[in-house]
Specification:
Radius of gyration: 18 Å
Order of helices and strands: EEEHEHEHEHHHHHEHEHH
Distance between the termini: 29 Å
Mean pLDDT: 95
Largest sheet: 8 strands, mixed
Oligomer: single chain
Shape: globular
Strand order of the largest sheet: 1-2-4-3-5-6-7-8
Number of helices: 11
Number of strands: 8
Strand content: 15-25%
């Protein structure tokens, strides 16, 4: 589990998973998690991807194993997050990658593909909104006026239990162990990091990035959802010139964790088709 230490910038943690043939020069897929999550949330994807591609799983600044060695209130900006991702690519000497981002990680993928088109071979979006609509803002506030107030009053563990542990967040029949793991992992997050990032999310809108995305884009989305509403998908379809949209049979936002095999195989075939390589043995 490498740490990328920088003198004047936050330290970043990332994971590498590589089961490709050592005599081949395989490409890379970067998996970027979303708000309050970490590189651990991609665990179920790794077996499907890492035989054919080198997998890079960064923890966003202040998330997962990346320490809180920055000011979340002032240094949680799109520019900061994009600079971090580019720095990890530079550290690993990766000129370009297949970028797969979940939720907020997908917003970062839109920004990276627009601002640094040569670094993104393909872009896969997993439950990634274009902006935070009012309904989702209210849903994640836990009954408080704002999400920040909920986080600071309840603490991250209780907030995670109230939001992600609610019966409706996952579909009926979901493995109770997975539910518990999901809530516990999010409960490890630093509340000020989440408040700082949500200060960005509340006002962020990726719509202006969309027409500047040159890479082919794959969208993996739930059949319906609070965060990724039909209006959001219409913006993606109108703004992105080369978009393939796939809906998975669930209304849960958490398709990253609920449907790892289906999602990973879609991303694998999308990347491999672009590269013109085989992804079966």
């Amino acid at each position: 589990m490498p740490f990328f230490r920088r003198k004047t910038k936050p330290t970043l943690h990332y994971r590498i998973d590589d089961f490709t043939d050592p005599w081949k020069k395989s490409g890379a897929i970067l998996l970027q998690h979303g708000y309050a999550r970490s590189s651990r949330f991609w665990h179920g994807w790794v077996p499907y991807l890492s035989r054919f591609y080198r997998i890079v799983r960064p923890d966003l600044r202040g998330h997962g194993e990346s320490p809180v060695d920055f000011n979340p209130a002032t240094e949680s900006t799109v520019e900061c997050y994009i600079e971090d991702i580019a720095a990890v690519l530079d550290e690993l000497k990766l000129d370009s990658v297949h970028f797969c981002g979940e939720s907020f990680g997908g917003i970062l993928g839109m920004a990276l593909a627009a601002e640094h088109p040569k670094r993104v071979r393909t872009l896969s979006l997993v439950s990634a909104p274009v902006y935070q609509n009012q309904k989702s803002q209210e849903a994640y506030a836990g009954g408080y006026p704002t999400r920040e107030e909920a986080l600071r009053t309840m603490g991250t563990k209780k907030w995670a239990a109230a939001i992600y542990g609610a019966p409706h967040f996952f579909p009926a029949g979901t493995d109770p162990g997975m539910r518990q793991w999901y809530v516990e992992e999010i409960g490890k997050s630093d509340p000020e990091v989440l408040c700082g990032l949500y200060g960005l999310l509340r006002h962020a809108n990726a719509q202006d990035f969309l027409p500047r995305i040159k890479a082919p884009v794959l969208g993996l989305y739930p059949a319906a959802g609070t965060i990724t509403s039909p209006e959001q998908e219409e913006l993606l379809a109108a703004g992105i010139r080369n978009l393939r949209m796939i809906h998975l049979p669930t209304e849960s936002h958490a398709i990253l964790t609920l449907k790892p095999a289906a999602c990973a195989e879609h991303v694998l075939h999308f990347a491999a088709q672009y590269d013109g390589i085989a992804c079966r043995e």
